[in-house]
Structures are given as C-alpha cells and as structure tokens.
Amino acid sequence: MTSALSTTKTIRDSAIVLRTQDLGEHDRIIILATRQRGIVHAVAKGVRKSSSKIGARLEPFMLVDISAAPGKKLATISQVVTRRAYLGPIINDYTRYTVAAVLAEVAEQLLNHEQERLEEQFTLLAGALSALARGSYPPHRVLDSYLLRALHRAGWSMAIGACAACGSLDDLTYFSPSLGVLCTGCARTGDFPQLSPLAPEEPAYLAALATGDWPGILSEHPPALRQRAERHIMDYVQWQLERPLKTLTTLEKEI
C-alpha cells in the first residue's frame, strides 16, 4: 500500500477510521479503510493536543473525506471533513461498540488482501456502520449479515444451500468451518475437521443473512438458532482469514 501511495502527489479519498495508535507525545497513527485505495496508514500530527481541530474527526467509526501527503511508510493527513459521525451512537451502546470493533477488524483484514472490489467492500462496511448507528436492526444481525456478504465479495462464499462436498440439497445436517454446510453422507465419510451439528432451519436463516433479506432475518427464529448460526459464521470467518479475531473475545460474552 505504501508504494502505491508514493506515486500520487496528494491523496484525496473517502475513508472510514478503523482504529488508531498513539505516536509520540501529540500525534496519532490512523488506520483507514478508503474507498479507492483499501487500507491506508496515515499520521495525524498534533491531534492529541486539546487545541486540535481534526482530532475528533479521526476517531474510530467516523466516515470522512481526507486529504493527505504520501510518504515512504505513512501518509500525512492535512485535511479532514466529516461525512457521517457514527462514533457517538455506537460508543454509547456497549453491544453496538463491540460489534463495530469486529466489523473494523474483519474489514481491515479483507481490505489488506483485496485489490479489485475495494469500493464494494467500502460501501458494505459504511452501510453496516450506518445501520448500527441508526439502530436499524439488532447489532448482532448486522454483524452476521455483513460478515457473510463481505466474505462473498472477497471470494470466500460459504456453502449454504447445498452440500459443499457433493452439491446435495437434502439432508444438510453438519457445518464445516472450512466450507460451510455438509450433508450427512459427506460429513460421515469425508475428512472434515471441527464439524458441528447444523440445525434444520439454519441453512434458510444463513441464506437470509447472506443476501441481506431483512424480513427473513427478522422473522421469528429461536434464540438458540441465532446463536448457533453466529458461532458458525465466526468459525468460518476465522478459518478463511487464517487467524483468530482479537475483538471476538469481548463479543463472545454476549453470544
């Protein structure tokens, strides 16, 4: 990412602040998900001073327009304009905040590897944060739907409506974190690690999440089904990313 930025005189892009790191006494490194460039690491000088005019605009989950000068390792932010201030309503609700933290961590991992569908991933993340901030839907349902849709756009679609091994539409009774749903026959005869039981209604519910079918998502489902589906989604995400999610520890206390 740094080398790509170094070919541009000035960076101008829409961005979502994913996280920050303190730098020195007064500065801060801002990790941004941008619409056109993916992940950008930039330094915001003096933003930890009480007199800073842009510090509040560069907090996590803010949607901003930025101007920055590229550098060898870090860009340097020169101008920030707030487009959507999602932080306030998110940080004031613990569940929304923990969900947003997982969104940001997954988005950073996906965009670090994404080259072709940056704008789609950016738009999807912005929509999820907007839904969280507005309270449009239950926070965990926003997260589950975002994860399945973001992974699909990254080329890691979960097998949901048919057995991942043989394509059968019937007798879908097991879940594999590496592939998705499996039929009984394949689960018993194949070598699939970490298999877990699949609830009969779970494929239909997962399909609603994966397509953003909110009437289907919000229809009456037993809490145990929602919890099982979310655990399966989290297992699948971490398998595809090949790393545990740091932010999941806090979230799992609520599942």
From TrEMBL:
NCBIfam families: reco. GO terms for cellular component: bacterial nucleoid. The keyword DNA damage applies. Residues 10-82 form the DNA replication/recombination mediator RecO N-terminal domain. Keywords: DNA damage, DNA recombination, DNA repair. Pfam families: RecO_C (PF02565), RecO_N (PF11967). The gene is recO. The keyword DNA repair applies. This is DNA repair protein RecO. GO terms for biological process: DNA recombination; double-strand break repair. Belongs to the RecO family. Involved in DNA repair and RecF pathway recombination.
